[in-house]
Amino acid sequence: MPAPRFRQIAIETVIVTGLAAGLAWGRCTARQEMRGQCMRTAYFYKPPADGSSARFIAHHFDLIFLTHHDEPYLRRLRARGYRGLILENLGASEAGGPGPYRYPPASCDASYIPFGRTVTFAPGIFCRVVNRHESWFLHNRRGQRIYNGYRSPLTGWRTTYAMNPASRGWRRFVIAQLRPYRRRGFNGFFLDDLWLSRSGLRKQGPDADGLREFHTRAELQRAMAGYLRALRRAYPHTPIWANLTDDPYRAGSWRRYLPYLNGVMVENFALGWANYALPAGAARAQAANIRGALRAGKSVLLVAQGRRRQKRRRTRAVRAFWRLARLPYARGRIYFRYADADVAAYRNVWWLKAYGHGPAQRRGRTPPRRSAHD
Fold it and tell me: Which overall architecture, per CATH, does domain 4-372 show?
């Protein structure tokens, strides 16, 4: 039996190695997973708004994504025993700023309070740095910046600009902006809305009129792969996950991005969205890409969309999960969440009986909240 000091060093080495590989600590045992008794679960993107305690989240979830300004909640989770990955949620190639400015403005509102989800999180940085570089932005065919805007009941008007992943200046800016996240306690990065195709960009914003910078899906994917390559070179040992969006639903369409990622999220797993179904052909292509990612050694988070009371839909989603989770190359690297993106922006905790309980929970260390169960 090793001496306590050396035993502690060995334990810490295992934990650090696992985090660097993009793996989270396990609530479930390998035997439970093989028998279909326990599912690895994930929670994202903001602290719960339904009264779920930090202790409940810490002991019931295996993978967590939070957003900038949630660092106090991150520390609460750690204090209550959570030892897995907590990744910083960021728009993959987006900049939040004042406006909307369709063209470079004569003056820029430096007093704008930025949204924590993008790398332009510091007040004034959009006007001082980003707004000066038109080549960093994506544009429609009329030369107007591509953006999304919405009015938040809490913070007023929000403008998010689509940024050019091929721009070396934008890449250098993002790499520099990411460094503080690591120092504040996050284990790595979760890149939301990593585009697989041009479909969303071509229709984005009130002045939708195509995409000037990239004429084909292959061009966009080459640029995005180069962007990911630059991030990986800058952060070679940092877990990087991504939500792959605007999926063309073709087998192999994820292949360019996988070498630079530790894990991927599938936000409309198997069933599609709550208000429209995923066509059969698209579901088959999605499943093929999930298997390809798992074979490549990547982790996968499967998010099934549905209403809380749709018991049959939940059952279908859970069965689809287990068809993949029981694959020999999926062990320990596949996660699940059943939720509705249109309800409380994922800030609710629907704890399903199908998730099961790990050994510590069965011993009564974490009594389940009744309101969190189906």
Answer: Alpha-Beta Barrel (3.20)
Interstrand relation of 156-162 and 147-152 (parallel, antiparallel or unpaired): antiparallel
Phi, psi of 359 (to 5 degrees): -55, -45
Q: Dig out the tokens for 331 from the structure.
A: 């062990």
For 27-39, give the DSSP string: SS-HHHHHTT---
Q: Tens of pLDDT along 73-85? A: 999 999 999 999 9
Which candidate, 200, 210, 126, 213, places its Cα nearest to that of 164?
Answer: 213
Helices (H) and strands (E) in the chain, counts: 11, 13
CB 374 within 8 A of CB 314: yes
Alpha-carbon distances of 177 from 136, 214, 258, rounded to whole Å:
15, 25, 23
φ and ψ of 133, to 5 deg: -120, 95
DSSP code, position 65: E
Strands 240-245 and 263-266 come out as: parallel
Other beta carbons less than 10 A from residue 104's beta carbon: 12
DSSP for 71-83, please give it: HHHHHHHHHTT--
pTM beyond 0.85: yes
Q: In whole angstroms, give the CA distance from residue 213 to residue 283.
A: 30
pLDDT digits (tens, 9 = 90+) for 263-291: 999 999 999 998 889 999 999 999 999 99
